Amino acid sequence: MTVMKKATAVVINEAIEKLLGASPCSSRWQSGTRAMMLVAAMLAPSAALAQSSDRVMLSPSGSVSGKVVATSPGGVDVEKGEEVQKIPIEKIREVQFGGEPQDLKAARTLLARGRPADALEDLKKLTSADFDGADPLVVQEKEYVEAAAAARAALLGSGDVKAAGGLVGGFLTKNAKSHHTYELQELLGDLLAKAGLPDKAAAAYEKVAQGPPAFKVRAASAKARILFDQKKFDEAGKAFDEAIAVDASDDASKAQKRAAGLGKAKCLAQAGKAAEAVSLVLSAIRQASPEEKEMLAGAYNTLGAAQRAAGKDQDALIAFLTVDLVYNSVPEAHAEALANLVELWQKANNPERSRQAIQSLETTYPDSPWVKTAKATVSKM
Amino acid sequence: MRLVAVAVAVTLVGAAGEIRLAVAQDDVSDAAAAKRTALEVSTELLLEKLVEQGDKGMHDVVLWVLDRVDADDSLKSLRPSSPLRRGGSLVSLSRKELDTKKKAGLLEEALKCFDVFLAAKAGDAEVGNEQIMALTEKGGVLVERARLAVAQSKLSGADPAASLEAAVKFFDEAFASFEAAEKGVLVRLRSVGEQLAAFDVGKKADGADAKDGGKEGKKAPPPRKGRSTADQKRDAAKVEELSEEQERLRGQLLSTRLLLASARFEKSKAFAPGSEGWKQAMDDSTKRYAELYTKYGNRGVGLFARYYEGRNYTVMAQAAEKPDDRKKLLEKAVQTLVELRLLEGGGFVPALKAKAYNTTFECWMELNDVAGFDEAAEKAVAAAVSPDKYVGIDGGDWLGMKYRGAALLAQKAEAEGPKGRPKLKTAQKAAMEVAKVNRDYAKEARELLTKLGKSVGEEQAQSFEAAMDEVGVIVGNWKSKSTEAKELEKASKADEAGKAKEEAAAFRDKAIQSLVKAMPTATDEDLDRLNKARYLTTFLLYDAKRLHEAAALGEFLAERYPNAIGSKDAARVAMASWQMLAKEGQPGWSADARRRSAELAGLIVKIWPADGSSADAAVVAIASAAEQGDVKRIMDLVEAVPADSPRRAEVLLRGGSALWKAVVDRRRLGDDAQGDAAEQPVENVLGKATQAIDAGLGAVAAAGKPDKLAVAAALYRCQIGMEAGDDKLVLETLTNPVYGPWTVVTSGDASVVDPAVAEEALRLALRYFIQTEKLDDAQKAMDLLEAAAGEGEDAAEKLASMYLAMGRDLQEQLAGILGGAGGIAGGAGGIAGGEVSGEARARAGKVVSGLVKFLDRVAAKDKKVSSQMWVASQFMALGAGPGQQGAAIVQVVSKDKRQEYLARAAAIYESLLKSDDQKIKDSELSIRLKLATVYRELERWDEAIGHLEWIVRQPKGANMLSAQWEAATFLAAAGAVEKDKAKAVDYLKQAVMGRQGEVVFWGWSGIANKLQKQALAGGANEKAAESRRRFFEARLNVPKTRLTRAEVGEAADRTKQLEMAERDIVLTHKLYPDMGGKEFRGQFDKLLEEIQKQLDRPSKRGVDDLDAELQAEQAQKPAE
Fold first, then answer.
1. Tell me, what's the pLDDT at A34?
2. Residue B689: pLDDT over 60
């Protein structure tokens, strides 16, 4: 590592550490602001308050409507009439606030679609007037989208890792009870890993592991990913095995374990055991529910990669086409599949389909690092 | 009538396609309901998505996926519908296929799939939607096959009766399939009707026969007693679902009936117009259309049926013999279509109106009834040229309506005089639009425009599309003028043809200019048209002999847009351009053009491996790779040729032959082999050559048609077999009834064998028959060879050259056997030092034994001079000793035997010298030289020198290098063995310095001096190389002979001779530091070492030391 890189790493580390530490000053500011906002909300009969109820989108499908009255890292409480329903975090796909501005909702959708840079652009359209009298949770939601979009953009290579780390750390410090806590902890870990601080990243993932069982599995997988990115495929494989071995059997954990299984398969493919990898992924696909679109998108990409490693390009094409045509609602996976299709169609002497794939990739995911990969592939051919 | 066919095709194909999608969607919801695994659901959804875009879908990928469905048990739930999906995709792929044979193949395969599917469903209690779809698809495919058969009947060389008979059979099978589909729909309709009736809804089970087509609006079940609110909701939902299904089935029923009527019309094309079969098909079709209109006149299907009924009358009118019948039918058509011309509305109405007007206008033109062209018709034409109206309608009917409408309107306007000017302008506009599209009726429209005095080129292109319209008109004119020029040429009207050609060239150049101007204005959306423009430009540039530009543009298309329409043809044009440039271009560009041609050929093979044009490309690529010695590439090309390539055999044979030639070259060049040829193990190349030739010959045998290529390849296969000692294979190949070289040559069929190949085949056969002691056949081969030499002036020379080649073949064969894979060269030095296996010795012995027997036979029976000369030369070769040409022989022939063969050679030559034959007189010098060599070998010195002296006394012999060489060799050899020291020294002295007097021998020094100029003049040809080789050999022989003299001469002279020998070498080095190359340097070095050893020098200098001394000496020069 060069001196410059070391220096940068130290700066990022310190900055994030600082942001993560509890600051009485910031805490006071937070409570004060919240109080002011609550007062404002009570006094101002704004349009926002008069709007429709909140809606919690469940995973893999379904929703619960009502009023979100409390949030915590473990889930959200939704008031429905006289009852309050507790929805655990592992079952929540998205929380939509009835009173949130349209641009905030659009930004969150773009974020979910893998277009963080566009999400940030949408956030810029929001003004303070949009939050006049708004529920503090809506304000918090804006900060979440801002931090998460900055983090994802940085992870995609189009943003500043340090600045993003600052935003994420800031959010976590300010909003300890947010239902986004585990997600942002994981993002923080990802940023630290990208900054070349695997130990710090592992520490961040440890906080994710404090969540429900499914998050334990997720945290273990995230740690395994660090090893995978370091090209320590055997060690990563073992780490994924540990994730799979976590003592949990609820549906959410099972889904996470299947994802870990895919990680394990990637390790096998990289270690030259392509046939074993293919077998493992196919087994995971057979066990999955057809509704688990995110998992299936990843699974078919892993399957395609393993089949490519095994020299079965036609099978790989089918796998990546399955993501492109069937499971294309998962942005990162879709971009990855398209990039692979660009190369595979070229190899299959079908440059027109290759061109269509790269056009689709560039148009749909302009910020994705896969665009660069695909372009490099095309220029080599 | 072209329009009619187009219309029916659209109807038939469209109907089937829509049904397929509808059923596919049903299947998916069923799948979801059955709770399938994620793998099953994913695969099902993928299959659905892949065909979502109809014919533009990824049907090739569908076939891959279905292959996996068939192979993977975890996907077995998808298998029942697999043949149906496969069939559907094959049908879609067939629509993109331009090759008629391949298209028919795909349709045949699709038919099988539908049959498999239907057979599997045969036992089902109820006919399902999928079966109906399969039956409809099958009917459509059968109609398509029938159409192909009708088209086939019109091709030259086809058997029209058989093709039309096949077409009728296909049509009848199609009717059966459509009728089964119709029946299936009716059964389902009845079932749905009964279910609805249970809810007291839709009392009539088969509502399809209702006048209004069963359109009854939304149905709701009447409330039933005892049903809860929830039950009633469920009932309503069920009724709605059943009603929708009923409506869909009714539509399907009508479509199927329309298909049945249309297919019958199509069937009429399988008969001669006016014949009984034709009449029956036309009447049947017309009747069905009329029934459909009567029953469903207010539905789209009924209205289309009405149009086709009218259209049928016009077709029947064309075939009517009596003018009155014809008139009545045309009037009936006009009357039938009147209702359709008055239709108003969107959707399908504009297209249907266009059809009706087009046919009506056609009838009016036939009837010459301008009066019939009423105000409504005028309005229809005016509306058709309106820029915003009817966007997207550009079919043949639309163009026909506009052209015919313009023609009728123009007639009417002309009759009205100045008042009719606005109509004239409308007519001009309509004709211009048709000309611009440049498809149906474009020629007629251009003629009309000319008549109307309108220049079509005046309109300015504002956009790419408009510019391309303009190009279309110009290209149309170019085509038209080119055709005209050809016809004039045929009619021997040279002047007019020349003028037409000039005009065509002017149109072509204008088209290129317009295209070049138009292309930069294209946007991303214009990509397809832009690529068409690029293809068109490529072709026009080629026509204009702007070959570099044509090649560059064609290559661009092939590389960047290989799947664009015209790319394949553009690539072929580009390759043709490069080939033409290679052949006729400037010398400096030819090599580059050849290389580019080969690269492009490689690209074509890669992109379109299974296409017919790919074989041309592969042949070009193989030829180029062979020229460059790129063995790996030839192997790749041979490997890449698809199993179903139409010219697979040709590519394999050419590739295999090129590989075998590479093996031969490699062995000939040995260590000098360059590049890839040297990198590939020779065994691999030989194996691949054998494999390719065998596969190619197998295909030729199966086809039963030999050609020159196959015969030549068979000859190479024999050569490989000979080398491997595989007598059985050689015999089988030589005598194969289809391509066997011996079979072909002895049959006298010169059309399948080149003369050079025939000669080589005979030489090979001769060798084979000799070694297998089939002496009668060997004699026959020899006779044929002599016959092949002919009887003209060059015959003797040709025959001599043939005999020489035969001798060389035999020597090479022996060397090949004895020397193994690397020893085929058989030159001086041969295979000395190598161990020869018992097997090789036995094989070589067999060859020698067969040859001797054959030589005995020829010597005794064939007294022709040429034959005797050949026999003598063969005996001479068999007697060759170590270090001589054909030295391999020493491995299997004992010294005594060799001496015997040499004596027999000498006896034959001596007897020939006694002949009065002029041929002998002409060859006396050469015969005597051979005798001198033979006698020297036999150590019969006096006889040898006698012949040599005779030769050099002759005016032609005095400066004969070969004789002087033999003389020096003789003197050196004689000196070495002469017991008398003085005589020996004299021989050796003469060997170096030559002999003066009446008989002049040059000696090695003299020979070297004579060769010096020629040897050192440079030059890369073989002659220059040989001079150089001989020069250094002569210089080497000088010290060599001095060394011998030192050894055999007086002791007092020894040191002097050795020192002179040493000085000779040092001087040679000083004058020619490379000393003739690596081989000679080694020999000089070895000789120097021996000389110094004999001189007892304390420190020895090698040639390398001489290099160093020379360098030091030269380095000192500037200082001095």
1. 37
2. yes
Dist. CA A183–CA B752, nearest whole Å:
79
What distance in Å separates the CA atoms of residue B1120 and residue B1117, rounded to the nearest whole number? Answer: 5
Query: Count of CB contacts below 8 A, A vs B?
Result: 63
Residue B1001 carries which DSSP code? Answer: B
For B1062, the token pair is 């040493």
Closest CA to B844 of B857, B830, B856, B858: B830
Q: What is the pLDDT of residues A80-130, one digit of tens each?
A: 888 889 999 988 989 999 888 989 999 998 898 878 888 999 999 998 888
Task: Give the dihedral of Cα atoms B123, B129, B133, B134; nearest 10 deg.
Answer: -20
Tokens representing B1082 are 């080694």
B213-226 burial: b if 16+ Cβ within 10 Å, else e:
bbeeeebebeeeee
Q: Does A322 touch chain B (CB under 8 A)?
A: yes
Cβ–Cβ below 8 Å for B562 and A282? no
Please provide residue B541's backbone torsions phi and psi, each rounded to the nearest 5 degrees: -65, -40
Cβ atoms within 10 Å, residue B573: 25
Chain A residues touching residue B39 (CB < 8 angstroms): 282, 285-286
CA B19, chain centre distance (Å): 40
Query: d(Cα A90, Cα B221) in Å, to the nearest integer?
Result: 46
What b-and-e string marks burial along B626-644, b requiring 16 or more CB atoms within 10 Å of the CB? bebbbbbbbbbbbebbeee
Cα→Cα distances A280→A45, A333, B456, Å: 57, 19, 68
B621, B602 Cβ separation under 8 angstroms: yes
Helices (H) and strands (E) in chain B, counts: 46, 0
Per-residue pLDDT at A343 exceeds 70: yes
How far apart are the two ends of chain A, measured CA to CA in Å? Answer: 33
Q: What is the pTM of this model?
A: 0.49
Q: Confidence band (pLDDT; 50, 70, 90) for B825? A: very low
Contacts of A289 in chain B (CB under 8 A): 38
Which of A345, A350, A322, A343 minimizes the C-alpha distance to A334? A322
Question: What is the residue type of B383?
Answer: A
Q: Is a pLDDT exceeding 50 seen at residue A14?
A: no
**Of A304-318, B53-67, B809-823, minimum mean pLDDT range:** B809-823
Tell me if the bond preceding A60 is cis, omega within 30° of 0. Answer: yes
Q: Compute the half-sphere exposure of residue B743: CA atoms within 13 Å on the CB side of its CA.
A: 18
Alpha helices of B385-490 — where are they, by DSSP H?
A: 396-416, 421-437, 442-451, 464-490
Cα–Cα distance for residue pair B113/B87, rounded to 1 Å: 5
Q: Which residues 224-283 on chain A approach chain B with CB closer than 8 angstroms?
A: 282
Measuring CA to CA, which residue among B457, B459, B444, B454 is closest to residue B408? B444
Asked if the Cβ–Cβ distance from A351 to B74 is below 8 Å, we say no
User: Does residue A361 contact residue A374 with C-beta atoms inside 8 Å?
Assistant: yes
CA distance B378 to B388: 18
> pLDDT tens-digit profile of B919-939?
788 888 889 999 999 999 888
Distances (CA, A) of B94 to A109, B56, B141: 43, 12, 10
Question: DSSP character for B545?
Answer: T
